[in-house]
Amino acid sequence: MTDFAIHPQLIKDCVLLGRFACSHVLLMNNAGAPWIILVPQNTIGATELTDLPRDTQQQLLDEVNLAAVVVKAQPSVEKLNIAALGNMVPQLHVHIVGRSPSDYCWPKLVWASDPGPRYEDAAILLWRDLFSQVDGFSAASL
Amino acid sequence: MTDFAIHPQLIKDCVLLGRFACSHVLLMNNAGAPWIILVPQNTIGATELTDLPRDTQQQLLDEVNLAAVVVKAQPSVEKLNIAALGNMVPQLHVHIVGRSPSDYCWPKLVWASDPGPRYEDAAILLWRDLFSQVDGFSAASL
Lengths: 142, 142
Prior knowledge:
Mean pLDDT of chain A: 95
Number of helices of chain A: 3
Shape of chain A: globular
Oligomer: homodimer
């Protein structure tokens, strides 16, 4: 897995919070909606969720569930949008977005909306702390 | 499971092709992009993928894989968009959309675009025939 690298566009748009066994955990730098992106590590060349071997898919799904718990615990989140899209960034990645009828772009999709405000540094640290309470999460240096 | 019914908005927008063990298989009536929707049956009250028990999630994921094979086999499909959204229709459902840089709304998402043209009846029958070749699929009457 020496050649794996997170896509530069994801690095630009997000903050790397850390990783689970299968996937890297990124926070989209958009304070308008809680928005986590999982990038599975052992998937060089895979662009589709359905390209992955079944056991890797299931491990990734388990990590989606873990991230969903953190996102759903955020104030005002009433709905999740979970998606593997990739029209813009071909590297396989899964979005877990917490939505609310009171958020900055409801009911439009976040991918079809202008970016919301960026996070304060303290808020990013708080996100990392929240994930650090999840079993199997290893925090990155910020 | 006597109270389960597919959401009226999905019935309005789609054609019911049949079902797998876990989920009903709908074809979005949009000839602009191959677009399948899976609606899991045994999920009354569930609105999120992550609300489902792990074994149901995995069964649904297996059926997403089966649908993805059919969608990817369509001419010109180069990319899948797989998503559980639900901002408009709260009933849990999973989209499997085949995309191509030459399709009617690339690179915009289908959910953020005007509908494409509707299918001819013969094309809908062909879709049902394609799924009828998949193990575990039971075709609906059209």
